[in-house]
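Feature request, filed as a ticket because there's no other form

It would be nice if the structure record came with a short human-readable summary line next to the tokens. Right now we just get the raw output. Example of a typical job, pasted below so the devs can see what we mean:
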Amino acid sequence: MKITEDIKYIGVNDHQVDLFEGQYPVPNGMAYNSYVILDEKTAVMDAVDARFKEEWLENLDAALEGRTPDYLIIQHMEPDHSAVIADFMAKYPGTVIVSTAMAFNMVRQFFGEDYNSRRRIVKGGDELPLGKHRLSFVDAAMVHWPEVIMTYDACDQVLFSADAFGKFGALDREEPWEEEARRYYFGIVGKYGMQVQKLLQKAAALNIQTLCPLHGPVLTQDLAHYLGLYDLWSSCQPEKKGVVIAYASAYGHTREAAEALEKDLIKEGCQNVLLYDLARCDLSQAVSDAFCCDTLVLASITYNADVFPCMRDFINRLTERNFQNRKVALIENGSWAPMAARVMKQMFEKSKEITWAQTAVQIKSSMTEDNREQLKTLARELCSE
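Raw output as currently delivered:
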């Protein structure tokens, strides 16, 4: 696949994986992207997962058409992009690896050597001439690993963006970009919003016509849309008005309250009401939607003087990704000593700009008529803004 006249796609699609990074469901698989730039000198941009070594090397051979790579540029050392470095270097003994000093430390850790005689260490601001293509490197430390560097080709106005602007899903599956890119961002990159903001400032100084990420499709149209979403996501601002109700229930009474609130919100005219059973749902999707919407309702039983484990897991996932700028409402259930609301609120102590709903709902064992009225009041409060 041609990206430009001189840049070719040589990546692979993975439909064997069920959980990316061992935790994110990927029903439409995963793409591991790699590219080659053909000029007076040739540069291969990143590698792929170990299971696809042969397919990737065949793709590379076809793109090279008998030429030999001069450089292998490694922007990110996660194994889904670097696992076949040793195989590549054995096949092409004249090739030089180009990467950051920290990346070469990781090369040694993964492969037992750092190719000291066949390497070129670069940092942000350095350049690598290939001919008419003169590559410049952009420091992207902690987006989302510390060794990451990105590469800009001014000739074709292409930014090779490492894991940024990626998404879940293989390239031979058609699906909207936003939802799986959002789930990918908040699952994998979301903790590092400050670093993404710094990257976006650097990107603003570049004339970018094409984004080539390491996962997901090459982006060529309406780049302001994708850059704008990354700005929104990395600043932890909600995308839209909406209410996510996330509940943890043991015997169904807390679930009943969550479902009743859902109906009340819809009756009050609330748009985008989403209900998640945290014990059964894909937590990465629940996290993604909690960041997408401006309002979150948490409903949990009291469990061992705490909250139900899946609720604790969910809140931890939110707070470690700097959840903020949202309205949050709490529903608790406890048969003798309800404590869930207090515990949940304490878990957000370090979160900024959290507005707590005025209406509190406390259930003792099963729902009462008073509880039903409290839920109606809460629905009116949440829909009034």
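Something like this underneath would help us a lot:
The mean pLDDT is 96.
The longest helix spans residues 253-267.
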